[in-house]
Amino acid sequence: MNNPFDGFKVISSYTRERAIGDGVLRDVSALAKESGFAVPVAMTSAAWMEAVSWSQSNEAFQDETGRLWDVLIMAKFAATRPQGRRSEESPRSSFSVYRVPNISDATEATELALDMHIGPGDDGAPVITIMLEHED
User: Exposed, middle or buried: residue 78 (CB in 10 Å: 0-12, 13-18, 19+)?
Assistant: First the structure.
């Protein structure tokens, strides 16, 4: 199949490395490797704020490392389960995590839907991005 963009000059690109540097993506590869991922993993800043970010002023016994671990374990489960909400044709898997919202006086866990996308990184090797379900 021919690439419709053959012969065109790229005038601008936004790399994953730059997105991490700009804070658009958050590299979580170190903890992801501990939880069993074999490829680099990043989260969008919006997914981080909803699922992981935690203010100690909320006075609950939580921290960001534990909250990130919960997300990564559920993502790993979604990546390895047979089919589930994943289509073989789609590079995305949907999963949910229950977390206490990062707002004062919140004490009840609520469900947060997340998507995990696997695709080529800056050098073409596979990478994973965890995002809110409405993000691309």
Answer: buried
